[in-house]
Design a protein that fits this description.
16% strand; 18 helices
Length: 503
């Protein structure tokens, strides 16, 4: 074994690898390759216990068992004294605990364990098991492991410190974002003027038991608003029960809502509790209520008026202590005109309406939402994407988002999976964002929307050309600075995203 080559490889890994977990794995790979070891472990201190954090030759279950108190076994003794240990044959050593269960009975191997030191403090141990061979110099191996342990200790400590500082900065950034957003209720993300108005309505109605009707296109976050209303109400600790009216066959709506008795209809082999009863003392969220049939609407109207119900197959009248929140993406007024939705039910539901804006109407929230989804899917998929490139920001801001926040979330999830660096680039985004689908078409658009979209494109292009300088962009468009500022505010354009300081 060439000790100099081993140290050179490990030194390179220490310099290149900033992730402490990956560094430990890289070091064990080098030791396995160069020293021909059977098993190896790194343990690190967690309070009073030294826990295996990286290993070779152990499966996940064996690795979990690798916990040692100071002074316990060979590893624990090294951790307690700071002195290396060399056992030429562990088969006859009573201090070898075989805590992981990886050592086979009668197996004759050498065991070497050294302390991992930083600033003269014992922070962990490094141990290896290798076959007994005549040409092996175990003392030289022990000295090499001591050097490696000290090299790794400093690198791991620095990397972990950097990671912790980054986490603290992210936590502080998140806290400040929420503070600036006037304490967004629930888990809703957004600081735009339209969303602040939504928050105002939520806080206004939440303390009461009034029925709420949440309206908005598909994917705008109607269920999040319903949960926010519940969270700020006196029913916050009660159940939150959801019924998607569009997903239930008409013949089963009454049973789903109110429950049924055993034998009340074919297939009713047991008694069933309905959603109204399950939500007792809490909140019942009726999603897509505009999809209820006229027959089911009659049942719903009676329940909302009387707050009483009967299970299917029973004459017993029950009282319901629930707060009702409904949501729809349908145009209920048009449905009433066409005889598809009952007028009396509409007025019973529409006591306190909350209208959610489309994502295209709250563009200043797009990057904030994107950053939130980046953090969410980094955690889910174990990625470390940190930012959006300028070109990706431009594509996100220019797109018209017909699927609203749900489409943006799906878009960012895909980008997290395809990103090869710590940045999301334009190529990581779906083709629909890059293929000109965001161009305004006359079909389905009103004149004002088309004009606003065209103005926005002109201003964005000018700001991009002038690196975010509003005065220079105004000159390009032959606008006064006052008119430029007015249109930037009106169209919710953020000039800072075009400055040269951004990646």
């Amino acid at each position: 074994m060439n000790e100099r080559a081993v140290l050179l490889q490990i030194s390179r890994a220490v310099v290149v690898e900033r992730n402490p977990d990956h560094l430990l794995e890289a070091v064990l790979d080098i030791l396995s390759r160069e020293m021909g070891m059977l098993r190896a472990t790194f343990t690190f201190r967690h309070n009073d216990v030294f826990q295996i954090e990286a290993s070779r030759g152990l499966d996940a279950e064996q690795r979990k068992k690798g916990r040692y108190h100071a002074g316990e076994g060979i590893t624990g003794t090294v951790a307690a004294t700071g002195k290396p240990a060399l056992v030429s044959d562990i088969a006859g050593d009573k201090n070898f605990l075989n805590r992981t269960g990886s050592h086979k009975a009668g197996e004759h191997v050498a065991f070497l364990c050294v302390p991992v030191l930083r600033h003269d403090q014992i922070v962990g141990t490094l141990s290896i098991e290798r076959k007994l061979e005549p040409e092996t110099d175990l003392n030289a191996d022990l000295e090499l492991l001591q050097i490696i342990g000290n090299l790794v200790a400093e690198a791991v400590a620095v990397s972990r410190q950097e990671r912790e500082e980054h986490r603290l900065l992210q936590d502080e950034n998140q806290r400040l974002r929420y503070a600036l957003s006037e304490e967004n209720p629930g888990k809703i993300i957004g600081n735009s003027r339209q969303m602040r108005e939504v928050y105002r309505f939520i806080r206004m109605v939440a303390p009461t038991d009034a029925t709420v009707l949440i309206r908005g296109s598909s994917g705008t976050g109607k269920e999040l608003v319903a949960k926010a209303v519940r969270q700020l109400s006196h029913r916050a600790n009660g159940p939150f029960v959801t019924l998607n009216c569009a997903a239930i066959p008409e013949s089963l709506v009454e049973s789903e809502l109110f429950g049924h008795e055993k034998g009340s209809f074919t297939g009713a082999v047991t008694k069933r509790t309905g959603r109204v009863e399950a939500a007792g003392g809490g909140t019942l969220f009726l999603d897509e209520i505009g999809d209820l049939s006229l027959h089911s609407q009659i049942k719903m109207l009676r329940f909302l008026q009387e707050r009483t119900y009967s299970r299917v197959g029973s004459n017993e009248e029950r009282k319901a202590d629930v707060r009702v929140i409904a949501a729809t993406s349908r145009n209920l007024e048009e449905m009433m005109t066409n005889g598809l939705f009952r007028e009396d039910l509409f007025y019973r539901l529409n006591i306190f309406p909350i209208q959610l804006p489309d994502l295209s109407q709250r563009r200043s929230d797009i990057i904030l939402l994107a950053e939130h989804f980046i953090a969410k899917y980094n955690l889910r998929y174990g990625k470390e994407v940190k930012k959006l490139s300028t070109t990706a920001v431009n594509l996100l801001m220019d797109y018209h988002w017909p699927g609203n926040v749900r489409e943006l979330e799906n878009c960012i999830e895909r980008a997290i999976l395809t990103a090869m660096t710590d940045s999301i680039c334009d190529v990581d985004l779906p083709p629909s964002l890059q293929s000109g689908h965001n161009d305004v078409s006359v079909s389905g658009s009103d004149f004002k929307s088309m004009v606003d979209s065209f103005q926005r494109k002109l201003i964005v292009e000018a700001l991009r050309r002038e690196k975010g300088n509003q005065t220079a962009a105004a000159r390009v468009l032959q606008l006064s600075p006052r008119m430029m500022h007015y249109n930037i505010e009106r169209l919710e354009i953020d000039p800072n995203q075009f400055k040269e300081s951004q990646d």
